[in-house]
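User: Could you write out the 3D structure of this protein bound to flavin mononucleotide? I've included everything you need below.
Assistant: Certainly. Input first, then the structure.
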Amino acid sequence: MSEFNPLGVEVEARQAAKDTFESPEFAALVHARQSIRLFTDEPIPEEIVRECLDLALLAPTSSNLQPWAFYWVRDPAKVEALRAMCLSQPAATTAQALIVCVARKRLWRQHARELFERFSESGPESVKKYYGTLIPIMMSPGPLNLFGALKRALFFTLGLFRPVPRGPSTASDLRVFAHQSIGFAAQNLMLAFRAKGYDTCPMGGIDPTRIKRLLKLGYGDEVSLVIGAGRRAEGGLYGPRLRFPRERFIHEV
Ligand SMILES: Cc1cc2nc3c(=O)[nH]c(=O)nc-3n(C[C@H](O)[C@H](O)[C@H](O)COP(=O)(O)O)c2cc1C
């Protein structure tokens, strides 16, 4: 197993100060992140977990609507319950930090309103219109998704003649939007842990319904995945990196 030299805070600060887009360490970091399923019992300092979570929040979201939530589960009884809800996978039972990544689609409305207010004093008219009018019309599915269905039909018809923005406009589009966003943030989180010398395992093999109940999540919230983190233990890497040939996925057209 090749040793990875984690980026220190100092290096990060120096990079930020240089204000450059060149970052050769980035490729090393991406290579170094692998799913690790066994962790040592060394705790992760709280400030590191917080810093990594803050970096997760820097992930991009459509219209900057940030439809997500992270639950760093710390209460010992809840941690035990969560481990069982992660089907007692070793990545969960040995993790020193367990973070539940939640797709919270309902936040779009509140955030659109807040962004509208933020821009309403001095922002450009187009931005005010965007958050005040366009986003609410585009994203609201309406009762029983009826408005969403109407918009879909309208976009389908208009789309026969010209390119149209087709969503997110229905209830299911909103789910995709929220899960897509939390996915980007989860990747940020895992890379951040790796940069600090810790490893992670994303877990989708979980019982999201029970986790939702455990965390008393709200209506419409969906548990997207749980991330286990910790210091890599001997045998924590189950095998060599496996990827199918790039030609299968990358198309230059
Ligand atoms: C959405 C998602 C769900 C996953 N669920 C699990 C899981 O439940 N248990 C597990 O051990 N690994 C899980 N993984 C990790 C994958 O098995 C792993 O990413 C894949 O084999 C590629 O290996 P790498 O992450 O080391 O590159 C999951 C990964 C993703 C993205």
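The beta strands are 68-73, 97-103, 199-203, 222-230.
User: Perfect, thank you.
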